[in-house]
Amino acid sequence: MRRESVASDRERIMRLAILILAAGCAMLAAAISRADDVTACAPIGAPLFSVDANSPVADPNTPIDPGDVLHPPGPMIVFDHLRLGLLSDADEVDGLSLVHIGFNPLATWSLLFSVDRETIGIVPPDPNLVALGLPFNVLDQAQKNQQAADVFMGLRSFNRFGPLPAPRPLRAPASNNTLLLNQGDASGIDVGVGPDVSPTVSVSPSARQSRLDAGTGSTPTAAGRRGVGEILAFSLAAGSPSLPSLPGTQSGADIYLAFIPSDPNDPNTVVQLYAAPIDLNLDPLDELDALIVFDDGDFVFDPFQDQVIFSLARGSPSLGGVASAADVFTTTPGGVNLFASANLLGLGFTPDPNDPNNLLDDNIDMLDFVDCPDAPACIRDRALGTLCLPCEGDVNGDDVVDLTDLAILLANFDIPFGATRNQGDLDGDGDIDLTDLAILLAFFDVPCP
Predict the structure, then answer these.
(1) Of 111, 206, 256, 367, which is the most exposed, with the fewest CB atoms less than 10 Å away?
(2) pLDDT for 272 beyond 70
(3) At 93, is the secondary structure helix, strand, or coil?
(4) Is 438 found in the same domain as 361?
(5) Do both 403 and 360 map to the same domain?
(6) Contacts for 342 with CB less than 8 Å, ≥ 6 apart
(7) What is the pTM of this model?
(8) Are residues 279 and 425 in the same domain?
(9) pLDDT in tens, 202-217
(10) Do 167 and 292 belong together in one domain?
(11) 43 within some domain
C-alpha cells in the first residue's frame, strides 16, 4: 500500500511538473502580455454612432455606410441610412443625438466627446490620474495614432447652464480629459471599429483609423427606446446627396428629427426639420459636427424652451477664424453662447511644426453626456486604465499570488465550461486550462498593485 501511495504521489507530482513546464514554455509570453490590459471600474455603455466615409469599417466591401447608425459588437447596423430617411449610401451623418425630454437643467453630468484624425490635444495626461493608473487622454492617444474613434470625458462636471466648479477632491486640473471608450481591444470597453489594439500600444502612422463621426446614447434618458422606436436628431455633412430631398435649407447646419417606427420592417420613417441655421443663429454655410438636443416634448425647436449644445466643423464661417472647432456652443434665447471652451476639454490650437506661422486646430466630432453627480468619482469609476484591474494571477482575491491560488487552480484544472475566477479561470473564457496556469505562474509571487 505504501509503495502504491508513493507511486501515486510521484505520478501527481510528475503531472504537475509537466503542466507547469508546458504552461511556462507554451504560454508565458501570452500571459505576460495581459499585464497591459485595461478596464474601467464602472464602464459606460457604448453609444449609438456613425463613422465617416474614410473609415476602414465603411470600405466599399463592407455593408456599412457613413449614413448608418451603428453599435457594438461588430459594429452592427442598428439603423441603416434608409431608416433615417436618407436616399444615398454616400450621405454622411455628422451630428447625432437622442432627443432628451424633460431633462432637469440642474442635473449634473460629464461631457463626452470624440475627435478626428487630425486632432492632437494640448495637454498631457494629468499626473494625478496617471498615478491612479488612468494614464490616457487625447494627446496620449494622438501620439499613438489611435485617437479618432475613442470616446473621451472632460474632467469638469456640467449642467445645462455650463461648467461647474473644478473637482477639488481629485486635485486634477479641470482643463483636461480622460479616455472612457477605446476604439477597440479594451476588455470590451470599446466601440469595436479598430484598430484592434489596446490604448497602451502605438499604431503605425500609416495604419488607417476609423473615425467616430457622430454619437449619442451613453445616457438613455430620451424619447423612444434604444434601437427600437427611436427619435433621433441628426445633421448631415455639407454636400450629402440627400440634402435637397429633406425638408430643410440644404445646409450642413440643418437639424432633422427622424421618427423611426418601432417595427424594424416598417420603412416609413418620418423626417422633419427641427431647426434651420437661422433658428440657431448660424450661417447657412456652417456645418454642425456634433449635437446634444434637449426638447420640451413638442419636437419643435423653441430657443426659450429647448436647447441644442453643439460644435462646428473646421472652416465654418461662424467660427470666424478665431474660435476652435473643438469649442462647444449652446443655443440661448438671445443667440449662441460658448458652453465649454476647447481649452477646458484639453483641446485647442497647437503650433504647426511645419509652418511656424500656422496653428493646427483640434476638432470635436461627437458630443454626448453621462450622469455624474460627483466628478472625482465619475473619473475614477469610468476612465480606462489599470485602477480596477484584478490582481493578475490572484484566484482567491487576497491580493497575493501564492501556493494557495495554485492549489485552487490545480484542483479545478480541466473544468471545460462555467468556471469562475475564484476557481481559477483567469482569462475569463469559462474553462480552466494551461492559459490560466500560465497567467498564474507568470505573476507568481509578484506584488499586486
Answers:
(1) 206
(2) yes
(3) strand
(4) no
(5) no
(6) 324, 326, 327, 328, 348, 349, 362, 364
(7) 0.82
(8) no
(9) 999 999 999 999 988 8
(10) yes
(11) no
